[in-house]
């Protein structure tokens, strides 16, 4: 009963939905039954001071609570809805515009800029995670970028990195399946060449940082005191990419020039559909430093093009063609330079989808030949990312994948100079969850342990477009401007079930649940999932008990 007069024991939660002009307030205390103990409820809206004053009678004694109002555009002329329920008090306000309206967003940006100046905005967490923005921001950093452990501020890189590139997608087959076939009628040799060039874009090179939405990929040679090892297998630094592939630096640069020309040839084909895709390349000149010549197959006769394996022609065909049109002697030719068509083992693994986003990977993108091992900070031993090893314990590509939520771009993590300050484990997980839901058309997900493949947590996506903020009530003597800095943050609503608390006999039920509901299956490292489960469990306290469960499963929130 004493909590009735103690404002700091009362918790408030504001909630709104995208595209809905309503704002709802939950006000509750674990020891109070408002429907019985709070009589003569009254609410006063004070927009000039951005707070809402609630009062009621308790045994003929008046009790008052003040709740800060977040940054929203409230319709002051609309009636305020108020009711007392068994475990909470509910207030509904009408908005002039939904919380995600562009005008409201611009309003927040202007206010935030005027209040904070050049300081870090408390509303950075409301900004979306966009990989293109990261790529541009990193590339514009003067003097290059160092990366640091977010936990202990230990510098991880030897020298500043200045070259940043987008990591190629492992889902390339889904958008390029029409390019591939058994003969030249489905792009034949050029498609193979484009695949080779695409695989070459996945190259762990010193001084180059590859990025995707959740991770960055750095070469071991760019890291301070990097000693990659898997259990008892310790990796001894060996040859670099060029020597491992049997190519010198000159040959690699020649290969890049060859790739550039073949890309231009393929683009020429796309602009002129009357020219066949199969291209004959002068081998002798292609391996040199000069721009090599290429001969389209369309110059051959119909009989030659209609024979089986029409993409393969001998040097006699080319020689006869040139004899008819010129007096010059043409060297032996072939379809492509053989050096440029060879793929390294790690590039083949990438093309098969096995070296993709290890933060959250699909179950079918895991290989028995790859052992993913967590990479920890050399100073504080906190998890920073992961690296792939083969069955012998040797690193596959000599690269480390750092999770953006565990690193920073300046020594003061979260400061104005930290380009990754928006990233958190929960937001990265949520963004991947929403992306998978869009691609797979499934709102049910089973998360497995990446190492043991055992189920860890089930998640059902209920609402991907919620906005929420929470805190404790103020008394009437508190500073009047404290509510002005309160802002609604984007969240998703989910049901979840901790599989780790289930008995061994119930594990089969999780499998049946996934199969029955056509759920998506993803894999993550167990420590990250444990942290997510703790966040989901604690987020339940943001709502009254009557809103903690839905259809027998806990109801919770995750930041978006």
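-> sequence recovered:
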């Amino acid at each position: 009963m004493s909590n009735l007069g103690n404002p700091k024991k009362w918790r408030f939660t504001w909630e709104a939905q995208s595209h809905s002009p309503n704002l709802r307030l939950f006000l509750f205390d674990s020891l109070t039954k408002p429907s019985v103990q709070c009589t003569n409820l009254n609410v006063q809206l004070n927009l000039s001071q951005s707070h809402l004053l609630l009062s009621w009678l308790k045994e003929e004694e008046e009790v008052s609570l003040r709740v800060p109002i977040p940054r929203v555009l409230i319709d002051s002329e609309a009636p305020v809805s108020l009711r007392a329920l068994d475990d909470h008090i509910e207030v509904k306000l009408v908005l002039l515009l939904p919380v995600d309206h562009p005008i409201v967003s611009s309003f927040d940006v202007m206010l935030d800029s005027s209040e904070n100046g050049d300081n870090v905005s408390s509303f950075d967490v409301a900004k979306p995670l966009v990989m293109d923005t990261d790529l541009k921001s990193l590339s514009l950093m003067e003097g290059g970028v160092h990366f640091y452990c977010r936990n202990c501020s230990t510098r991880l890189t030897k020298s500043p990195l200045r070259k940043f590139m987008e990591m190629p997608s492992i889902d390339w087959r889904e958008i390029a399946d029409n390019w591939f076939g058994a003969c030249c009628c489905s792009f034949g040799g050029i498609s193979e060449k484009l695949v080779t060039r695409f695989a070459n874009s996945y190259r762990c090179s010193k001084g180059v940082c590859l990025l995707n939405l959740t991770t960055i990929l750095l070469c071991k040679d760019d890291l301070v005191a990097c000693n990659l090892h898997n259990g008892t297998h310790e990796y001894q630094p060996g040859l670099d990419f060029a020597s491992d592939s049997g190519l010198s630096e000159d040959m690699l640069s020649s290969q890049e020039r060859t790739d550039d020309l073949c890309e231009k040839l393929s683009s020429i084909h796309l602009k002129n559909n009357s020219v066949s895709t199969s291209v004959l390349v002068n081998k002798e000149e292609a391996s040199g430093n000069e721009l090599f010549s290429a001969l389209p197959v369309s110059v051959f006769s119909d009989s030659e093009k209609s024979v089986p394996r029409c993409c393969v022609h001998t040097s006699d065909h080319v020689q006869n063609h040139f004899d008819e049109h010129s007096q010059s002697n043409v060297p032996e030719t072939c379809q492509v330079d053989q050096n440029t068509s060879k793929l390294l083992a790690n590039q083949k693994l990438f093309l098969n989808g096995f070296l993709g986003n290890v933060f959250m990977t699909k179950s079918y993108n895991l290989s028995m030949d790859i052992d993913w091992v967590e990479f920890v900070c050399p100073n504080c031993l906190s998890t920073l990312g992961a690296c792939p090893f083969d069955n012998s314990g040797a690193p596959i590509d000599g690269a480390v994948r750092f999770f953006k939520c565990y690193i920073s771009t300046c020594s003061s993590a979260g400061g104005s100079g930290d380009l990754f300050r928006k990233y958190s484990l929960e937001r990265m997980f949520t963004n991947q969850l929403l992306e998978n839901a869009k691609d797979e058309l499934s709102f049910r997900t089973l998360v497995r342990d990446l190492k043991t493949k055992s189920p860890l947590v089930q998640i059902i996506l209920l609402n991907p477009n919620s906005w929420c903020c929470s805190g404790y009530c103020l008394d009437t003597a508190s500073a009047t401007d404290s509510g002005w800095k309160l802002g609604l943050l984007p969240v998703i609503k989910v049901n979840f079930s901790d599989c780790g608390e289930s008995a061994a006999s119930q594990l089969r039920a999780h499998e049946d649940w996934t199969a029955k509901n056509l759920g998506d299956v993803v894999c993550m490292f167990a420590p990250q999932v444990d942290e997510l489960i703790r966040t989901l469990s604690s987020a339940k306290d943001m709502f009254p008990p009557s809103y903690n469960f839905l259809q027998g499963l806990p109801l919770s929130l995750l930041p978006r």
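The mean pLDDT is 75.
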